[in-house]
Specification:
The protein is an alpha+beta fold. It is built from four helices and 13 strands. α2 runs antiparallel to α3. The protein is globular.
Length: 248
Amino acid sequence: MKGRKYSIFINTLVVIAASSITAFPQMKDSQKTATVKFKVRIENISNADGFTASNGVRWPFVISPGAYSLHRGPGNPLFTVGSYSSEALRSQAEDGNPDLLVNLASHHAGVRLSEVFNTPVKEMKPGPVGPGGAYEFEVTATPGAHLFVTFMFGQSNDLFYGNEKAIALFDGAGKPVSSDITSQFGLWDAGTEVNEEPGIGPNQAPRQPRPHTGPREHERIGLANDSYTYPKTGDVLRITITPDVGMM
């Protein structure tokens, strides 16, 4: 009887050990799929020849450093269409400075991370991105997380690009998304400064003598819609999300 009990005990240990051996790789795989690193790339694909203003002056399409927030739950932590701009968004939209907006977003319910992207790819210091250039940043997220991004249309008084609705980083099955998300971005007017013709306005960031110059206005945030012509977003920008397959 003792020999039988001992045999049962040994067999039980073997089963447990075998189960443990197969369980550890499964746990590791689960951890890998639960947390994924994504690279977000914002490319300026505009023509190097630029655009021509009504007075014949040619101007390049340029974008500014921007803000991004990793978020869960409802609401947009960076801007709300139909509302008046915050001073933080004004700083982003008028002067290409996202610092205040990042700080404001960090206090929004549901925000897990809020940061600045400001250094062009292959550059050593912060600055704008002209034709052929790009910004890149990385976020690490788990299923249920989504992304908001803003950056300034540099040749404007207070126009900025951003996604009004959340960009999901995982699909309904929990798989990481790899996608061109350019179509989810609109060109928005912060409503804080009177618009001038793009590329030549004296109160626009490349030509203004100091930040926050130009006639103020008090309009609600909405899509850019005035008497001037702006390039189609897909003709000047390519914005993509790519998961790091090494972490999956």
